[in-house]
Structures are given as C-alpha cells and as structure tokens.
Amino acid sequence: MFETLEVGRRLKRSEYNDLQLPLRQKLLEAQFELAQQDYPVIIVVAGLDGAGKGTLVHRLNEWMDPRGIETNTYWEHSDEEESRPYFWRFWRSLPPRGKIGIFLGSWYTRPAQAAVDDQMSREEFAVACQQIESFERMLHDDGALVIKLWLHVSEEVQRAQLEGKAPRSQQNPRVSDRPYELHGNYAKTLEASEKLILGTDSSHSRWHLIEAQDRYYRDITAGEIIAEAMQAHKPRNQPLPAGPSDADDIAVTGRQPTVLDGVDLTKSMEKDKYKKKLAAYQDKLQDLSWKAYRQRRSVVAVFEGWDAAGKGSAIRRVTGAIDPRLYKLVQVGAPTDEENAQHYLWRFWRQLQRDGRATFFDRSWYGRVLVERVEQFASPAEWQRAYSEINQFERQLVAHGCIVLKFWIHISKDEQMARFKTRAQEPHKRHKITDEDWRNREKWHDYELAVDQMVSHTSTQHAPWTLVAGNDKPWARIQILKTFCKTMSAALDKEK
Amino acid sequence: MFETLEVGRRLKRSEYNDLQLPLRQKLLEAQFELAQQDYPVIIVVAGLDGAGKGTLVHRLNEWMDPRGIETNTYWEHSDEEESRPYFWRFWRSLPPRGKIGIFLGSWYTRPAQAAVDDQMSREEFAVACQQIESFERMLHDDGALVIKLWLHVSEEVQRAQLEGKAPRSQQNPRVSDRPYELHGNYAKTLEASEKLILGTDSSHSRWHLIEAQDRYYRDITAGEIIAEAMQAHKPRNQPLPAGPSDADDIAVTGRQPTVLDGVDLTKSMEKDKYKKKLAAYQDKLQDLSWKAYRQRRSVVAVFEGWDAAGKGSAIRRVTGAIDPRLYKLVQVGAPTDEENAQHYLWRFWRQLQRDGRATFFDRSWYGRVLVERVEQFASPAEWQRAYSEINQFERQLVAHGCIVLKFWIHISKDEQMARFKTRAQEPHKRHKITDEDWRNREKWHDYELAVDQMVSHTSTQHAPWTLVAGNDKPWARIQILKTFCKTMSAALDKEK
C-alpha cells in the first residue's frame, strides 16, 4: 500500500510559491462558502511520526481564515475523558456547522497505538474499525464533510526527523528524555496503519494518502485535496428508501394493535403497600448507587412517556434515593444554538456524567423518533437512520460499563384527559399544562405508532425498554424503582 | 454566632403540610417570573455535615419546576479542574439567565475544609474570603441574585446523623470505610465556619443561617427565604458615579496625548535581520513552551490592536513556534447564545487550557472596555467596573501559575489606510476588510482614549501590557516574540 508513497514526489520552491497563492484563494473561497452552509468540515491529519503532521496543521491555519477553524489535539487524556466512553472526547470538540475542525490525533490514535503495541486482539481491532466507520457515517449522514489525510515518510526520513537531524525539525521527544518509542517499530506501524486505513476507508469518508517527504509537495497536495473536497461537497440528506417499518405503511392498514396495547393499565397499588415498598426500594437503590460508585459503574436512565404520564414525579422517587453528588438530572427542552449547530446526539453526549455517577434524562435522544418524527421536525431519512445511530450510541455506553435503563410510562387517553383537567385546576400544577399538550393529544395514534417502532428498533439485549403501566402512579413508581434495583443488582459485581 | 441556632425551632407535621402548598405556589410563581428575566439565581446550600443539605436540595427540586433548575455538586475534583484556577470549576457550571443554579458544595468548601485542617494561614484565609467576595459581587453586579443558606445542627444531632442513628438518614460514610473524618472536629468546624461566614457576608450576598435540626422547619424556612428573595430581587444595573478617568472628562479637554503617543512607530527591521531573529526567537520559544509544559505552567496571551494592525500574522509567528498539542488559539467573535446568557467573562473562562498549555486570544475580554464601550454595547457602569473584574480575573490566573501576556499592536491612522487599500486589492486578503472596519476607523479618537484608560487601569505588575510598534510588521513580530521569550524565561524555574 505504501510503496507508491516513496517515489520521490517533490516541488521546487519556486513551484511552491507559484502554487501557493491560487491555492490559498481557493481555500478561502471554499471557507467563506462553508460559513453560509449548515454542515461542518472535519479534517483528520494522521500519519507516521516525523511526517510533518504538526507543520501541515500550522500551514492550514496560516492559509485559511483562522476564525473559522478550530484545531483539536488529543494527547494526554484527562480523567474526565477516561471516565467516559472513548468517543465522548471527540464529540465534545466536533466543529459546529459552517466551521472547520482539524483533528491532530483523533479517534484513530488509540487503535493504531494499541495495534502496534499488540494490545488489541484481531476482534477488538475489527470492532474499533467498525465504531469509527459508524461514527464517520453518522457525521456524513448529518451533512458533514469528513476529509482524512495520511502522511507517509520512508523509514530513513522518519529516523532523520526523529533524531533531530532534519533541518528546522520540531519534535515530540522533548516531552521526556526517553528515546523515541516508535524507533524500531517502523515496519509494525506500517502494518497496523494499513489495516486501519483499509478498515475505515469508505465512500463517504475516504483516506487520502500523501507522500510527505518533501514539505512543499506535502502541503500543496494536502491543501488541494481539502479545497477540492470542499468545493465538491454537496451534503446529502435524501430520504432513505422507506422500509416495511415506515409509518405510512402501517397507517394504511388502519388501527392495528401496538406494543402499548400489551401494557396492563388496570394495575394499581394501595397506599400502605406503596409506602412500604417505596421505602424499601429507595433504601436498596441508595445502597446500589453507592456500590455503583465504588465499582465505577455509571448509570444512564431515560424517561419517556405521554404528557402527564407522571415522568417528573417518578423521577423524583428515583433521585430522592440517591445522594445528589452521585447523579445529574437533565431536563431535555429546546436545544440552544450551540446544540443546534451540531449533530442531534451532541447535546446528549455532552451531558454524560463520569464513571460511578448516574445521568437521568427527562426526555432524551428518543425525541428524534417521537416528537421530531410526528411533528415532522426531522425528515423520514433523519428519524429512520436515528434507530441505528441510537443503538450505536447506547452500545458504546454499555461497552464502557454504563448501565442503561429506558422507561416509557404509558397511560390511557382517558387517564390523560382526567389529569389535564386536574392540572388546569390546581394552582401549583397549572404551569404543567400547555397548549402544546392539547395539540400532542390529537396526535395520539401517530405517537402510538412511533412508540411501537421505537421499541421494535431500539429495545436491545444490552439496553431494553421497560414499558410502565402508569394509570396508577404508585404502581408505576414502584415498577420503575424495582427495575432500577433489579438491573443494577444484576449488573454490579460483574465484569464491565 | 450559632447559639441562636440551637433554640429548638420546629414545625408540626400538620403545620408543615399547611405551609407547604402556598410556599410551593410562591416558589413556582417566582420561578416563572424569573424565566422572563435576564438574570440567574444562584443558591448556595452550605452548612454542617449531618444538617440535611442533600435532603433540602431534593426538597427544592421537588417543590420547584426542575426544568429551570440545575443542581451542581462539588466533591471529587477532576484533573481538568485541578489544572486550572480554582474558580474555573464554578464558572463552568454557573446557571444561565432566567434559571436557578443550586450549589451543594461550592467555592466555600475548600477554604472551609482547609481552615478546619489547619492548612491555611490567616492571610491565605483572608485572601480566599476576598476572592469569594469579589466573585459574588461580580455576579451581583451583572444582575444575579445570590442566596446563601447555612444549615446548622448541634453536636448531638450531628453525631446521631453521622453515626446512622437518625431515622431514614442518608450519609456520606459509604464512600469509604474510614470513620467519618469530621468526628471530634465539631468545635473547630464551628470556629472556621464563623470566620468564613463573617468574611463573606455582604449586603449584596447575605448569609441566611437556619436551625436545621427539625427537617420541617428547615425546609419551610429555606423555601421561604428563597421565595422572598426571588420576589424582592430587582437587578441593579445603575451607572457608577463617573470617576476622574471617565471618558467624558477627558473629551472636554480636547485632544490630549495618550499612552499610544509614546509608541515609536518609526521603528523597523530589515528583512535579513528579521529572518535571522525570527528563527532564533522561534527556536527559543519552542524550547520554552516545552519547558513550561514540563513545569506545568500555563500561558495566557491576549492580542489586541487596531484593525489591520497585523494581529493575525503576528499570532502565527508565535504559534508557528509551538507544538499544536501545547496551545489553543481562540478567535473571539460574536458570542453564542449560551455565552450571551452568562456574565461576559464566562466565555473566556471556558476557553482556558490546562496547566502546561498556552491559550492565545485573538481579541479578548478587553473587548468590554474597547469596542463594547465605544459602540455603547456596554453601559458606563458595566465597562467601568470591568477594569477591576478583569484585574481580579488575571490575578487568579497568575496566582494559579499562569504567565499572562497582553499585547496592543499599535499602528498610525495613515498606515491603517494604506493597509485597508492593499487588502481591498489582494484577492486572498479581501475577506479581511469589512464595512465595520471603516466605521471603526471613524472612531479612532474614541478608541485611543479607551486604550489609554485600559492600559492605565489594567497594566499591572503581574500582567503588564506591552504596546507594540506595528507600522513595520517585522519589527512588531520580533518585539512580540522577544517579549514572550523574556517573560517566559523569567517566570519559569521560579516558584509558582
């Protein structure tokens, strides 16, 4: 693979000077065009040590308008990063729409390093490649342009660079006094790199391999690749072909049972029994939350349900059992503009708490396949691909050791009406009922279908949905607390 | 001080039930009123261990609409927090305008703990109190309502709680198996608490002391204090009395010399000499940046100057010498809405890099006393108090070990005109010149005055301004690089 990158491509200084000015202009034009667009550009600068990745990043910042670029480097990982799923650190520095994010060190760094150090099995490596592929495809599907550059140098050039023999070299070994760790690993690095490149080269996110020995050739080539990719980019957001699970498909067949019809809404619990059970489960949950803390296991819990289903009060029965230092409650409302300028999952990633802590979401990423679908805030293509995006997201949480719980609190349409009326009458509850609630009620059947498909697509072994019978609030709360205790008990003391 | 808090205030359960409903209503009304306002509410819940701080926080979340509240707990500090000035962690979780932030554990926790453990001298303790006072005054001046609650219990009640004898108690010792560390320290804790409360009780940010033995009395009292404070709050934003340094004062005396007149704009450097010096200083700066990294010293550098003064190209000469992993360049443009919903310094705090790294600001917090002053985006009261707010901010940076550099790149009005014309002609520079630049030019004299007063108020021993002669770009760049090298050399190897 790399033999074509040691053939001696080079530019004379005069050629470089001639090419530089029109290239800069092209890049600037592409950048100004981008500023008007609603997608970001993500540039991954990867390659061998000594190939001049850092210098290229400097050059790109020099050529383009730095006001539209953010350069992110990944190097020493903080404990805040290490105590969350691997991709959290990349999510938190993704560029907003209209801007460029340059990544020097990226999601490729760790698998590459691990492969060179023989610290990853063949299977783990395949999983890592697949995760990268999903991540980049998701960004691409959202409109992002992903440009990946790989800089290659021969073993001789690398050695000269790393040993400081190259002119005006700027290097890493200054971090410590130990001899540069990749010395002698050149062949192995190439081998791992080839596997990584092959495993992550896809039509929507191609690798560009660049011979990097000559800095003039390297910089001009990288610049041209970026300029052309930016000029050519048309964000794709076309509807996927509608599958058998598409809403229209079901709608034409009339009112069919959904998974919600299986929830027994007649269940209830008497006050005395409720109080006893509440106290017992809260005590247990308190213990379990400290145990999870000690075992550095985090919990991510999602609460969804009909308006007035009692999400808030159910959540309070859960949080009431847990030390405030051990959890964060996230109320999901309208996104801020920083959130709107990102992939829709970004605002949820940014809320994830550290290992040992719980994050509770009052409404969640499932809004994408519920309200955004029903209200047509998301296109069919967007909400349909959201199922797999969400599954990927939750799989990453679970793989990191999170315990994922998801509740849909179900009530009947009549029960909802009764609660709306009560709310309208009680002064301290009046704020809870809005015009929007009445409007949502009219779309009851659309929501039923959306919930049915949501459960069908996203209730997985590692992150199953719990459908809660909510007509009787005590019953619902105990069911939720019980599920918490059961799930956490089963998960703790096990291997991550 | 605390003897009045052990007199046996209590409520019967029936009284509590009667009082709870109207109180909730009052709190909710205050909260909805707040949502329309452009200031945040900051509630500090402090007090003795075993006094029920956590339970009170649960109660407040239950009583109010959790959609408008964010609860922040400070406990185990992350390395991202520890490697930045102490207040960074609080800045990053301040509530936006219209919302409530509850702080369980706060800026009081560390000084209180240190005082109990005898790890803080009397002088350090005084400095800590003063920092807290400045922080809260700044928030208050920006409109925020700060409510501070101190929960007190007697030694007997504390012991019963901590030893788990109290009914339904929820405690900390589960974190570890060691006996609760405050045992036996009750008297000492009271002593330190009293000092801390006295040192930070001010008219704009009062402490409310609450007898907390009876949970009914505690919760109702805390709720009433919050409801009343929220109802009564009128954010103050009145102009300060204009001091002798006010702009008007100088304007009436006609065109007087300013500090900028002392900059010798005839300075220049020949190309050959420039190239040699550039290479030498960049090499030196490269070494120094690694040295700073090894010594865990961070650098914060501010670049300000006239439009077309050459800030961008000067910054590139600095960053060009530094490994991209060791710095972050922050381009300060229009604030996002998340930034607009916070104190104006928030957007700069959030950018600070970790120990050992540099943060470069292309434009900065000085916008408050430059463009925001001249364009009247900030009221006189706002930009006048900004001087001391900025000094406080920079003092915290320096106290933490940051090396702070500030550059104003000065050019003559004629030189600016010449550069505007060139920019308009060169295609790859055309984007740099906007209508706004021409408008700013008309206000040259207003900016001169603003710069003069900025330097006068904020050029301090620990964070001095460097006025750079910018008519000749090579000269300016070398002057900046030289200042970097000199300042960093002097600061490194010294005690933080």
Provide a descriptive summary of the structure in words.
2 copies of one chain form a homodimer. The first copy, chain A, is of the alpha/beta class and about 500 residues long. Chain A has 2 domains: about 5-230, 3-Layer(aba) Sandwich (Rossmann fold), CATH 3.40.50.300; about 245-490, Rossmann fold. Chain A has helices at about 15-35, 55-65, 80, 90, 110-115, 120-140, 155-160, 185-200, 215-230, 245-250, 270-295, 310-320, 335-340, 345-350, 370-375, 380-400, 415-425, 435-440, 445-460, 475-490; strands at about 40-45, 70-75, 100-105, 145-150, 205-210, 300-305, 325-330, 360, 405-410, 465-470. In chain A, helix 5 crosses helix 8 (about 185-200). Chain A starts with 12 loop residues before the first helix and ends in a 5-residue tail after the last helix. The interface between A and B is large, with 52 and 52 residues.
